UniProtKB/TrEMBL annotation:
A Gene Ontology biological process term: DNA recombination
Family: Belongs to the 'phage' integrase family.
GO-annotated molecular function: DNA binding
Protein name in the entry: Integrase family protein
Organism of provenance: Vibrio paucivorans
Pfam families: Arm-DNA-bind_3
Ranges where the Core-binding (CB) domain occurs: 112-198
Tagged with keyword Signal: no
Keywords, comma-separated and alphabetical: DNA integration, DNA recombination, DNA-binding
Length: 431
């Protein structure tokens, strides 16, 4: 097998011109492997461990003689020999360990941070809105919440699966005393984010991405809501709505905004913003219907509505007020601003100013939607039909598809009843 390796023998080993050779240590223990030094033609000297498995020699490089002492090399040999004695192939184990280290390194590099989660969350929000303006408004709103209440409280480099319930409690605890309603909004945003992180790793669409969050726990889910927000309760009576739509009130509004609010009422309490996004071509006069496309609606589900003579007259009047050619801007309520349509904030502002100026009891566009629904219910229109008219969110895809294209007869009857009631001359008040 050779002679016992010494530092003197190693230092004295000379390179051979044409080939490398080994100097082996005298071990004396068969089957436990042997330590040796490989001398290359260039004069390099390397420690090696050799052992035999299945009649074949295997070699493991331990390191350079110049960078490792003989004592250390022998200690490595003892460790590798112990593996052999346990029935473990040392080379295979080292390769497995190396792969595990590399995998852990890749895991750490791909380990999603809170900053990564914010990007994923904003991308997710963007994908939910086909309309660029809706997308912009949604992102602006959420980014404002993140900037004011979350940034700085949770560092962007923090690993997502290291964020605990205590971290979230500390963040919300700073908001709750002075703004409990806002605290619930921030809680809701964080809850959505962590649910998204959990789902992200299990989505095959993300498998090729170099990003994983490695979390199965949502630290927000068990945190108590404050429930301080109050749902809107203002419901205008039929008489109030008729009074509001009185032609004499038109002077308090931009004419198109006044027509927008009236259309919203006559169409069963549609969201004004959805009408602002609708194209002139969405109102199909020949078929007496309005098609609110899925990229115009809050629920991302198209809504088809029958239109009566009153609504058709309003559409024609709005169209006559157009100052941008339809070829340049197809929206019915087109405008030259960056949105391309009348600003919904301007709608709310004019409505608020109208109430302040005239003393009319305060209400919002959302109150109109609720009020019209209540009037339809008072007309014995079934609640499910009012929900279809107002395009409430439905869970099942097949059901949503069915609702979009069915119930036209029921909708037409309901909206016709509503129109008759709205145009009914209210009884005069007794002196």
């Amino acid at each position: 097998m050779g002679t016992t390796l010494t530092q003197t023998k190693i230092n004295g080993a000379k390179p051979k011109k044409n080939n490398a050779y080994y100097i082996w240590d005298k071990n004396g223990e068969r089957g436990s492997g042997v330590l040796g030094v490989k001398v290359t033609p260039s004069g390099n000297k390397l420690y090696y461990f050799r052992y035999i498995v299945g009649g074949k020699s295997k070699f493991i490089k331990l390191g350079s003689v110049s960078g490792m002492s003989l004592k250390t090399a022998r200690e490595h040999r003892v460790e590798l020999s112990a593996l052999l004695a346990s029935g473990i192939d040392p080379k295979e184990k080292l390769e497995r360990d190396k792969r595990q280290v590399e995998e852990e390194k890749r895991r750490q590099e791909a380990h999603g941070t809170f900053g990564d989660l914010l990007e994923v969350f904003f991308d997710h929000l963007s994908s939910k809105h086909k309309d660029p303006e809706q997308r912009k408004r949604c992102l602006t709103r959420y980014k404002r919440h993140v900037r004011y209440y979350i940034e700085g409280q949770i560092l962007p480099e923090r690993k997502v699966n290291e964020i605990t319930k205590q971290d979230i409690l500390a963040l919300l605890g700073k908001i709750t005393p002075s703004a409990p309603v806002q605290a619930d909004k921030i809680r809701s945003i964080l809850n959505k984010m962590f649910e998204l992180a959990i789902d992200f790793d299990d989505d095959p669409a993300n498998y090729q991405k170099n990003l994983r969050f490695y979390t199965q726990i949502n630290p927000v889910s068990r945190i108590k809501k404050q429930n301080k927000s109050k749902p809107g309760r203002r419901s205008l009576s039929l008489h109030e709505i008729q009074s509001f739509m009185d032609p004499n009130n038109e002077k308090y509004f931009d004419k198109r905004i006044f027509l927008l609010l009236k259309m919203s009422i006559y169409l069963g309490g549609q969201r004004p913003f959805e009408l602002l996004l609708s194209k002139r071509s969405s109102f199909i006069g020949s078929h007496e219907m309005l098609v609110l496309e899925d990229n115009c609606t809050k629920t991302s589900v198209a809504n088809v509505l029958p239109i009566g003579q009153s609504v058709q007259s309003m559409i024609d009047e709005v169209d006559s007020l157009r100052f941008i050619d339809e070829a340049q801007n197809p929206l019915l309520f087109s405008a030259s601003n960056t949105m391309g349509h009348v600003d919904p904030n301007y709608v709310a502002k004019q409505l608020r100013k109208f109430c302040e100026t005239t003393g009319f009891p305060k209400f919002t566009p959302r109150d109109l939607r609720r009020s019209v629904k209540n009037i339809m219910l008072e007309l014995d229109i079934r609640r499910d039909i009012t929900n279809y008219i107002q395009n409430h969110s439905f869970g099942d895809v097949a059901e949503a598809h069915y609702i979009t294209y069915e119930f036209m007869t029921q909708k037409k009857i309901a909206l016709s009843l509503l129109e008759s009631k709205l145009t009914e001359i209210p009884p005069a008040k007794a002196n």
